[in-house]
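Intended use. Records like the one below are meant for learning the mapping from a protein sequence to its folded structure. Do not use them to infer anything beyond what is encoded.
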Amino acid sequence: MSGDKHGGMVDALLSALETNGNPKIRFYKTATLPAFPMFVCENCKCNLICSRTLRLGYFAPIETTIFRHILGNGVCDRAAPNNLVVDVGANMGYFSAYAFVLGCRVASFEPNQNPRRYLEASAALHDPHHLSWKVYPAAIGKDVCT
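Structure written out for the chain above:
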C-alpha cells in the first residue's frame, strides 16, 4: 500500500523489508494531531504498541497528549544542536516518529531486532539521509532487563 506523498519510498521500503520469513509489514497513518505515517507489523498480536496503534490510531492517549503538548509548542528545532529527543527502548518508534514530525531531532535506541525493523523503516521514510533521526541497535544501561 503506497502512502500519499511518500509513495515510491513506501513501496521500496516495503519491498526491501518483506523478505524470507519476516512478518508482513504494513504502512499506517496515525490518528494523532498531527497525523504521521509509520510502519507496523501486519499481525500485531505480539506487540501491544502495534495493536493499540492500529486499533485506536495512537498508542497511549495520555502520554501522547503530554508529548504533543510539550514538544508541539515550538520546542523542537532541528537546526538547534541541543534540541534532541532520545527514545530509549523505542520499540517500533511511535514516540520517535511523533517527535520527528513535531520538528525534533531524534536518537532512537532499540536492541530488539523485531520491532527495530519497523523503527528503521519509519526513520528511513521520514529522514532518508539519516541527518536528523538516527536509530541505534543498542540498549542503554548495564543490565539486561525491560
